Amino acid sequence: MVVTLPALKGLIEPLTPEGSTVTMLMKPGRSEHGYEFSAADIASLTKADVVFLVGLELELRVDDALQRKNNPARRVVNFGEALGLKQDDHSHHNHAPGEPCVHGEGWVDQHLWLDPVLVEQVLPKLRDAVQESLVIKAAWNDDVAKQLTARYELLRKLVQQVHTDWATKLEPYRGMAIVTHHDAFSRPANRYGLTVAAVIRPGQAGETTARDIANAVKAIREQNAVAIFIEPQFDGTTAERIAKRANVRLGNLDPVGDGDWFRMMRRNLHELTSKLRAQTNVAPGTQTPAK
Going by C-beta distance under 8 Å and a sequence separation of 6 or more, which residues neighbour residue 106? Predict the structure, then answer.
């Protein structure tokens, strides 16, 4: 089985039988944007029983390879398609591969895996894909069926618990504003009542400009943003400079993870709540805006 991003591994691996291997095409530490899937990555698709990708134009080379090298025995779960989501017409985006892309109206946020509610919605598709692959390999029987059902129900309950934890622990901070490194966290922010006042890297693959920095500082002042969150996939120097200038706390949010979706979500929730809680505990008058 093959997944494109590390975070996706933790969503399908719990459903797989013992002895199964789940390969991550993109290794931890890389950004989900601008990553160039290698020839070896593409070649691994030909041997996969199940392929799990985000879709929504995030992994265009993988999507193209799957269409060109159709395998009737291979099952593909496209997260976006499973939710009935489709990206807008990309033809008007005038940029070369790897260059910044400024998205217009109709662009669908690709970071589906960061919303536990959407994750739960894709789980039946993952279960069905695993089942169908086992049937094709003649590895399906009553015992295997019971095991898969048990794994699926446990996984679903664990994902629901993640949603409950996020909703409960972020409720006291509803309405508070944050700044993120790039536009990866708008879905969980919208789901749990936070506001993303600004992003430091508006373009998916471009460098932060002086204008981006000025806009971030302005947003912090105008919306009283309480923290800036950098990502481990990028250098945090610019964010650190903005945080110091605007006198706000600096935190870390990881949109990709290391292959364990649950650990990634726990760490991100802890980071959010710790920085937001620290802000609410600041004595009046000690948090002053930058001049």
Answer: 88, 89
C-alpha to C-alpha distance for 58 and 66, rounded to whole angstroms: 14
Global pTM value: 0.88
- Beta-ladder partners of 75: 50
Beta strands in the chain (DSSP E): 2-3, 23-24, 50-53, 75-78, 177-182, 195-201, 227-230, 249-252
* pLDDT (tens digit per residue) in 139-189: 999 999 999 999 999 999 999 999 999 999 999 999 999 999 888 999 999
Whether 177 contacts 196, CB under 8 Å: yes
Contacts of 266 (CB under 8 A, 6+ apart): 162, 165
Tens-place pLDDT, residues 115-131? 999 999 999 999 999 99
Single out the residue of 88, 287, 37 nearest to residue 176, CA to CA: 287
Contact 86, 189 (CB under 8 A): no
Residues contacting residue 204 through CB under 8 Å, at least 6 positions apart: 33, 34, 100, 101, 182
